[in-house]
Each structure stands twice: as structure tokens, then as C-alpha cells.
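User: Predict the complex.
Assistant: Input components as received:
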Amino acid sequence: MIRLLLFVLICCVNTPAMAQEKLDYAAFEKMPILDNGRIKPLGAFAKARLKDFYGSDKNANAWLAETLLNPSEAINAKIFLIKNDALKTRLKLSKDKDYFNLQDLQTGLQATQKDIIALLEMNQDELTSEQKALLKIHEDVISYNELLRSFSLILPIIDNTTFIDLLPQEQRITNDLKSIIERKGEDISAYTQSEQETAITGFNLQQIRGGGTNNDDFKVIPTRLNNTLSWIAPWQTINDGQGSPQTNEILSLWSNIANAYRSNNEKAWNKATQELLNKTFKITAPEISKTRLKVELLYQSLKPYHLAMAFYALSILLLILSLSKSSKPITSAALFSLSAAAIFHASGIAARIYILDRPPVGTLYESVLFVSLICAIIGLISYIKTRKPIIPITGQIAALGLLAIAPTMLQNNDSLELLVAVLNTNFWLATHVLCITAGYGVCIITACLAHAYMILRIKNSTHIMLNGLFQSIHKIGLIALLLTAVGTVLGGIWADQSWGRFWGWDPKENGALLIVLWLIWIQHGRLSGNIRPLGYVAGIAALNIVVALAWFGVNLLGVGLHSYGFTSGIASGLATFCILELIIILGLWITIRIREKKV
Amino acid sequence: MIARIKKASIRLAEADMVFWLMPLLIILLIAGTLAQRWVGLFEAHQTYFASFIIWAGPVPLPGGYIILGLLTLNLTAKFLFKSEWSAKKSGIILAHLGALILLIGGLITSMLAQERYMVLPEGSESPYIYHYTKRNLMVFEDEREIARLPYKNIKNWNTDNLPFDIKIKFACDNCQILKREDTADYNEDDPYGGMAQFMALRNKKSEKEPEANLTGFEFTLSKAEGADGNYLAFDGMPNPIEFIAQGKSYALIFGKDQSALPFSVALKDFVKDDYQGTSMARGYHSDVVIKDGDVNWETRIEMNKPLRYKGYTFFQSSFDQSEAGEISILSVVKNQGWLFPYIGTIILALGLLLHIILTFNRGRI
């Protein structure tokens, strides 16, 4: 109990301090921003950034508002998560804590500045986890510093005057300050009061100007020039001379928002955020779709895959229950649960198609989402048609397992990624990629069924049941062959269109071909009588390994033209999976052989 | 005799041929894929897939050509002698035909396809295309090409027909360039000519992809009037080596094997189109004009949208942006077998689909 209390206490302490959690962020989070090449709602930007720094995206809107609009307070928040003990030692941080603020990090970061330059010149794949963590914390701090100063030009410096207000006098104040220093030196105590005021204002202006240099990350201001819409960060209106009456208007609306936030005036906040939102949409229509931004926010907050996973788990339980005791309520509940899971899962993928305006699979993460859905849908269709639980159970287990590993495939915290140029073709993404990933899905469900067949054979299930299952495996295996074979050659045709050769023995191509060859091999072995039915089923079960190697394994080689699919850190997981699968399949096969010999 | 051939053919047509050959192909595929991590795609391709025999130490193993050749024979024999020409088997027959067409297409491509590239600065026009890996020393006599000496045979170059002598000092598949005075064997009094006065070449580990190598060599030139001495030449050398011999002017240029298209290509504009606010490319394209006699054909080549003209296909493959301007690099492929995969794929897909429909309708295997 005491431990639990302690845990809760620690969690509370670690939540970043946020002043205005109670404000309504509905309009604020809908504001469009250009980030990583894509227009997204501010709410999604906030979540991705906070998750980057803090490891969680709770109260992201309030955190972002505080960071942007009240930076002098926000700076104290312990928002940097560091788990690597070696790095904590290097940065002279306490090992008992995981969360730190800028001040905690300052000394350590200054001391490691030189290492960073050396690390950046190294091959990034060869860095140790501590080196990677060090690089990340430096990058995070730079990015956080930039965020903190995004609006420094419109926030009050002294007596509600802002940098922008003082901008016309900046040159004069700087000159005055210079002449004061020339006359009286740098000791401020020797200055008159008015000289001291000039010195402080001048120093502040210099500081703020410095923080605004190259501050172009927070591209939230739309400008339309010659009917071309572009997005700039607040400081770019001054630094790059991109200011215009239109951007001034937007900046003054942001200024209202800042004032409302700092005075914690709920009514003014609501009015100001809504006003800015309306103005922004007025400038950006028709290019920017309000609905798309809303769908993205909904997609982020609803977490459709979590819901789908819950329903997959429920349906697996219900289906297993129906194995021993089949009754109408159980089968109906199972059907409902299966359908609900598939609907949530499919809506998540549909939302991604709508938001990104492209077919659903372009990254490794998306391929896992899609393959998982294929497994679930085959299970669902089979259940609707036959009401037999074996195929849906295996299908849902595969779907659940894949959804669970999907987040490990993410390259960064925004899963809605842009694609490199060669992938930027809706036709091939919709044909080759969907065909081959659907093929992976069908292979996985066939392989899982083959496992089920072997287990049932050990459990002495009836001949009729086993025979029925064998036929299902064979038929679904044929679909797997169709999809993988056609998907592979379609990939060849895409390669012919973009690189000028149909087949280049590139690792990813070879991986896809490996699945096809494996399927052809066991099919022909069965036909020629060289592989007996049990061996055939074991061969199908091993498809899981072949697919895993083709899908993820070839990426680990780090060579070839398909370098856009690379991901690190899955090697050990993959190896464990393959070895375990091999042991399971061999174990099942040997057990069946020994038992049936005895009989 | 005929009976014997027929018997052998029928044996070749058996399904168990696939059963025995396929594991070999699978092992070859895995080995050839893993090898790429260490030796690069080009060498792995040459050793495993584009070879008849692979030597595992003293043991000869069948290479890609033998295994794929046997599979092609097996498929052909099966198609001709073992096909059950019935509606029930129509899907199977079509699927095998599709696979056969793919294999034959692969064979034709591997024998006939030629892959070159062309380098076009913006505003330029050129008919010239270059081999990715093959390099030559070209000899010009009064601005007319009279000889082309392949780098591959550099040790046996025959210059008997030429009025001057070239003696190779050393060659490097991948060279690094050093300052001449920094080299150990530098002798002030030696006669160095051309770039060899300031530069020296030394051997360096080859790149994984041979096209990225900087190939070059150093040589001694003699019987050239007043120009005898030590020279060097390397890929993309900026200036030719020029001299006079027996009253005629000669020029030597070393570089990737060059040939000319029967027409020329002019680059009007190259564009790298980035996602807004980033330097990540959304696409690349080259606006070109094909100039062929009276034809001036304006068109665009972009990622995933090649241009096909007179049997040549042009792909947007690379680019270079510098202060001097933008350069577009196109790969140029001539492949008589390019249609086979398209036809094979359609037939294969239809066949497998038909077979699945028939199998599902039959209700049993």
C-alpha cells in the first residue's frame, strides 16, 4: 500500500507543471500547423512533441499553451525523460529520477557539446544506446528552446511592451546602449536610472532577438502571396521579411490569446482562440480542410487500435468458451465482438487514408496495421459463413499479436508519416503494396491454422474435423500463393517503371520471392508425394518464419534500394520469434510422429 | 533416340523436379541476399545469380543460371508433355504458362538488356550514354576516335598499331588521389606530364557498388614528341592528355564506356519538389526534349513515370545540385524482354485465380 502511494506521489510530482489546465482547448487544438511537411492540427503537434520529450502525451494542449505563451513559468517543468543510467551519470543527474527540467540538464549538456559534434559525424547505425540517448536529449533541448521562444516577439517584456512594439526603436536603443558602455564602461551600478532602463531594455531586446534567430520550427502562420499558400513561423515575419498586413493581423490575434492565457481569462481565451481559428480557415480555404483536421484529432484521441485490441481479446475468450459450450448468446456475443473489433480497426485505417490522402500502406508500421486487419477479416468472414470457431480464433490471435507489436515499428511519435519520393505513387501503393501485404496476412493466418491443426491432431480430434481443417489450410494457402506471387511480380513491374529493371535481386525483392518459392516448394512436394500431409502442414506452419524474415528480416541487412523500410532494434525480437516458432513446429511435428507410430 | 528424349522430357516434367530444385534455389536466394551485406549487390549478383557455378572452396555448386535453367526446362516439359488439357486444370495450366513467360522474359533480359546512364546539365543536349561499370581509354587522332582500350584488359593492352607507346605503371580499380610530392617514390627529376605533375594515384578498397569506384592508372608515355613522361588518367578526368606523335595530334581520354543514342536528349529543366517546409523530396522530374531529325518531342520524365522512345526507356535515377546549376541523371535501358513480365503477370494472376475458384467450387482438393 505504501509503495503504491509512493508510486502515485512520484507520478504526480512528475507531471509537468501546467498552469491553465482548465481552459477549453477545443479551438486551440484545431489550429492548423505545418510540421514535418504536413498540415496537422495543433493538438496532434502538441501530442507528438510532448511524447518526444516526456514519453507521454497527457495534457499536451495545456503543456504546449504554457510553453508558447508563458515560457518563463513553463521552463521549470520537468519534461525531459531520461531512463539511460549511463547517460544520467554522464550528465551529472540524479539516478533516482527520470524526469528533468532545462536547468537540471544545463551543466551536463554544456559539458557534452563537443561529443555531440563528433557523434554527428559518426555512422548513426553504429552508435551505442547511450550515445543515441545523448544525441536525442541535445536535439530535444534545442527543439524545446525553439518552442519556448516561438512567440517571444509578442510576449510582454516590461510593462506590457513587446519586442514588436519596441522594434521601431531597436536600432536607437542599441546605439544608445553602445554609447553608454563607451562612456561609462560595463558596470551598470555607475549608470543613471534612465541609463539603467535603457541598458536593461537593450539587453532584453538582444536576448529576445538572439532567441528568435533561425526560429522557424513553429509554422503556424498562413500567408497567401499570389494565390500561393505558405506557412511561416512567427519570427520569420521579422527575420525573413515575410511580414505583411495579413501576418500582422494573425500575430495580433495570437497576442490576444497570449494575454487571455496569462490573465487566465476563460472568456477572452475562448473568444480569442475561436477568432484566430476562423481567421486562419478564412485565409487557408480551400486548400486546408477543417474536416481532415478534425478527423486527425479524433483519430488521435479515440485510439481505435486500443479499442480493437480489447474487442479482439474479448472475442478470443468468447470463441474459446464456445469451443466447450456453444450457445446462442455466446456465439452472438462473439460475432458482435469480432465485428466491433474489425470496425474499430478498419475505421482507424480508413481515417489514415483520409488524413494522408493515400492508400493505407506506405510504412512498416502501416503494413503491420493492415496485415493484422486482413487476419481479423478472414476470421470474421469464416465465422459469419460457418460459425466454426477455429479459423476466427487463430485469425484474432494473429490480429491481436500484430497490433500489439505495431507501435514498435514506429520511427517517431507521429505515425502519420510522409513518404519518400519513390513511394509517392498512389497507383503502386494501391496495387503492389496492398497485394503483397494482404499476402503476408493470408500467409500468417494459414500458418496459424496449421499450428492449430497440429495441436488438434495431438489432442486426438475427430478425423472429420482434422480433414476439414486440412482443406481450409490448403485452400487459404492457395490464396496466399496467389497474393504473394502476384504481389511480388507487381513489385517487379513497379521496379521496372521506376528503376528500369524488373528484377534486381534486391533483398526486399528476394524476401518476397522467398515466400513464393517456399509455397511452391511445399505445394509441389505434396503433389509429387515427396512431402506427406503432416509435413505439408508443418511447412505451412513455418510460413510464419519465412514471412517474418521477408517482412522484417531483410530490412536488418541495411542494404539495397528499398532503404525506406529500414528499422533498427527489432533484430533480437525477430530472432527470438523465429527460434521459438522453429522449436514449436518441430516439437509439434515430433510429438505427432511419436504418438501416431505407437498407435 | 526420340523415345529416349521423350522419356527424359517426361521425367523432367515431373512435379518432384520442383521439389528437388526449389530448396537449391531457396538456399541460393538466401545466400545471395545475405552476401549483399558484405560484398554489395553487384558482386553478390555476379557470384550467385548471374553465374553457372559457385565455388564453395573446391566444391562446385550450381549457380543461378543452372538452377533457373533447369526450372525453365522443367516448366517447359511439364507444359508440353504433362499438362492435363481439361477445364478442371485450366487454372493450373495458365499459372504455369505465366511462370514460364516470366522465366523466359528473365532469360531474354539477362542476355540482351543493356543499362546505361546519361548526365544532362540543365540547358544542355546530348546523345551520349555511359556504361555503369565498363571503362575505356579512348584514343583520338586529329579529333577522330581511332582506338578504345578496355580497362578490363589493361595488363595486355596492345599499342603496336599506335605511333606512341604506353607502358602501364600501375592501375587501381578504386583510386585515391594524393599530392604528387607527398608520395614516397616522388623524384623531382622524373618527367611528369599533365595532371601527374601535381597528383598521384594510390589503391583504395573498392566500393560496394563498382560504379562508385574512381578507377584510374598511371603510365609512361614514350615516342611522343617532346611529351614523353609519366602520366595518369582516371574516371571523369577534366582534361584529355594531348600530344603530338609523328606529326599528328593525339588525345587520350579515360572514362566510362561511352556510346551514342540514335537521337539526342535536351534537358530544359530539372525539378526536385520538396514537401512544404522540409528538404524531403516529394518527387523529382526532368522536362526534356527528344531531338530526332525533324522531331522535337517535349516530354517529362519523373519518378515512376519513365519515357519510352525507340526501344529505349529513360528513368529519373539521380541528380546533382550545385552552384553551377542542376544536373539530371537518367538511366537509359534497352530491353527487348520488357513486355514479358507484364504478360506473364497477367496470365499468372488469372491462372492462379481460376485455379482457386475451381478448387473452392469443387469443395475438395
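Chain A touches chain B through 61 residues (CB under 8 Å).
Let me know if you want any component modeled separately.
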